[in-house]
Write a structure and sequence with these properties.
The chain is mostly helical. It contains three helices and no strands. The longest helix is centred in the first third of the chain and has 22 residues, at 6-27.
């Protein structure tokens, strides 16, 4: 049976600890690196011409085909 070197064990423990910490923070609803406040864009601005992902963005122009 192959044994792991000391460095591999240290990296596995460190990676497992970081992964468990991230999972715990996510499960508790905390954001990592965020301000905690989300910005929302009103629907009238999103749907306006030139807005972010408007109806015309998805459903206009050439859509492929033969």
């Amino acid at each position: 049976m192959k044994r792991f070197s000391g460095a591999v064990i240290v990296y596995l423990v460190l990676g497992g600890t970081l992964l468990a910490g991230w999972a715990a923070k996510t499960a508790l609803g905390m954001e990592i690196g965020g301000t905690g406040e989300r910005l929302t864009i009103p629907p009238d601005q999103r749907g306006s011409p030139g807005g972010y992902r408007t109806f015309h963005f998805w459903y206009s122009g050439f859509h492929g085909g033969k």
